[in-house]
Design goal:
Layout: E1 5-9, E2 15-19, H1 23-30, H2 35-44, E3 50-54, H3 60-69, E4 74-78, H4 85-92, E5 96-97, E6 107-111, E7 114-115, E8 120-124, E9 147-152, H5 154-160, E10 168-171, H6 177-182, H7 185-190, E11 195-200, H8 202-206, H9 212-221, E12 225-229, E13 235-237, E14 247-252, H10 255-263, H11 267-291, H12 296-306, H13 320-330, H14 338-452, H15 456-470
Parallel strand pairs: 3-4, 3-10, 4-6, 5-6, 7-9, 10-11
Antiparallel strand pairs: 1-2, 8-9, 11-14, 12-13, 12-14
């Protein structure tokens, strides 16, 4: 295993062994990985405490906890991944067991199992090479295959392993934190001063059908609050009610108790922690700048000059080799010769620069493709706008034609109304003429009757019948 391992120097003088290609090892070498969490564990735990490391991986936090609790304390590391167990066993110097009753009462011990909502068995998905930290109880893009493993609920484990107290529990199980909580309710009630350091990862929790908000709601229902470790190492209360894509939060009922413990940490631990927090903050800034596609080498230099209080750069040496050596020491390579460290860092920076150049070329190609697509869409949009203008013009013409037709209809309506009026007047004239004609006929009949000396009524009737026959 030695030829496949790398040694990482931790901030308090301890060392940890990791698989050579492991991403956690790489992140630790870069200097930014969970520095706030590491210092919290060292400052919070004291001699004789009991620490439970759920999802221990290679044992980073178990190593730190063991140095704090001493031989009178107890560290129980729980890890189901057979890929990483050999490194965990080497780092803690003990063999793993699958039986909780065999766990040591003092010192360090390892339980080869998973943890969840109930005791039994579960399918465990191991991570692909270099991604062992992403192993999980559910499949994800970084896992390969699955095996059956033992699984314990915390409520059962405390009884089986004889855990009479729990001062700090670290929980990092790739989204299964809600399941862990379901199996820990009795224990959380049993130990009112228990403190959790729990991972909130929206992406990982989503694979279990839950979210940061639902996990936070579950914790609040148990009277627990969530706190974030600030860059200075203090606790700031934060409501886990929104998406937390990746955050490690401290979960507890009593913030004052935690702050009192942190303040009582030994002076040498306080000083080492303050140094590590500054170093981690600077390294994290470099990492974030590098991942944002900025010039990695220039950012390292700027960050190093900005933290002269914690680096040999403050000596005023103007040698670039010395500066690179300081960078090497800064990111955890101080265990090897400075010249070799400088070469290693230069090589790493060259690789990073090559990666960024490749990413830039890829992004340039993608940008060119998107630019062409945008030009095509703009041309299509311009053509559509032209067609829209033509349609609008035709619509305006149609509106004008309709207006003309409306005016013509109104004009014809007026003429029709005029004709109707004239027709009504003609009818009146016709009626008048008819009445006049009738009067004239009656007058003729009366004159004829007087001439013939006949009865006027009879002559009128006969004349009327004659005129009627003529009509």
């Amino acid at each position: 295993m030695a030829d496949r391992s790398t040694t990482i120097n931790l901030f308090d003088g301890a060392q940890a062994r990791f698989p050579a290609q492991d991403r956690v090892a790489l992140f630790l070498l870069e200097g930014w990985f969970e520095s706030k969490e590491q210092t919290f564990v060292r400052r919070f735990l004291k001699e004789g405490d009991e620490f439970l490391d759920v999802g221990a991986h290679a044992g980073l936090f178990s190593i730190l906890a063991r140095r704090s609790v001493g031989e009178s304390g107890r560290v129980v590391a729980v890890e189901p991944n057979a890929q990483i167990l050999p490194w965990l066993e080497e780092n803690l110097g003990v063999a793993a067991t699958g039986t909780p009753g065999e766990l040591a009462k003092r010192g360090a011990c390892i339980l080869a199992a998973a943890m969840g909502e109930r005791t039994g068995e579960a399918d465990f998905h191991g991570g692909r090479e270099g991604f062992s930290a992403y192993s999980s109880l559910t499949a994800n893009p970084d896992t390969v295959g699955s095996v059956r493993v033992s699984k314990f609920a915390l409520d059962d484990l405390t009884e089986l392993a004889g855990l009479s107290r729990l001062d700090l529990v670290k929980v990092d199980i790739e989204g299964a934190e809600t399941l862990f909580l379901e199996g820990a309710r009795k224990t959380l009630a049993r130990f009112p001063n228990i403190v959790l350091m729990m991972e909130f990862s929206e992406d990982a929790q989503d694979r279990f059908g839950v979210s940061s908000k639902s996990l936070g709601d579950d914790l609040y229902s148990l009277g627990l609050k969530t706190f974030e470790i600030s860059d200075s190492g203090d606790l700031e209360e934060i409501g886990a009610t929104a998406d937390l894509w990746h955050r490690n939060l401290i979960v507890a009922r009593d913030k004052a108790m935690i702050e009192d413990r942190l303040a009582r940490a030994p002076q040498e631990i306080q000083e080492a922690s303050a140094y590590e927090l500054r170093r981690g903050r600077s390294a994290r800034d470099v990492y974030e700048r590098a991942t944002a596609g900025k010039n990695f080498i220039a950012d390292v230099a700027r960050s190093m000059f900005a933290i002269a209080d914690i680096s040999a750069i403050a000596t005023g040496e103007d040698s670039s080799r010395r500066r690179i050596s300081d960078v090497a020491a800064m990111i955890g390579a101080s265990s090897i010769e400075q010249d070799a460290a400088a070469q290693a860092v230069l090589s790493a920076l060259g690789d990073e620069l090559g990666r960024l150049r490749g990413a830039a070329a890829y992004n340039a190609e993608k940008f060119d493709s998107r630019r062409k697509e945008l030009e095509r869409l703009e041309a299509l949009n311009e053509r559509s706008e032209g067609e829209l203008r033509d349609a609008h013009s035709r619509l305006e013409q149609a509106d004008a034609e309709i207006e003309k037709l409306r005016e013509e209809v109104e004009r014809l309506g007026g003429e029709i109304e005029d004709l109707a009026g004239r027709l009504r007047e003609s009818r009146l004239e016709f009626n008048k003429i008819g009445a006049l004609a009738l009067a004239m006929r009656r007058s003729r009949a009366l004159r004829l009757a007087r001439t013939l000396n006949l009865p006027a009524g009879r002559i009128v009737e006969e004349m009327a019948s004659v005129y009627a026959a003529q009509d």
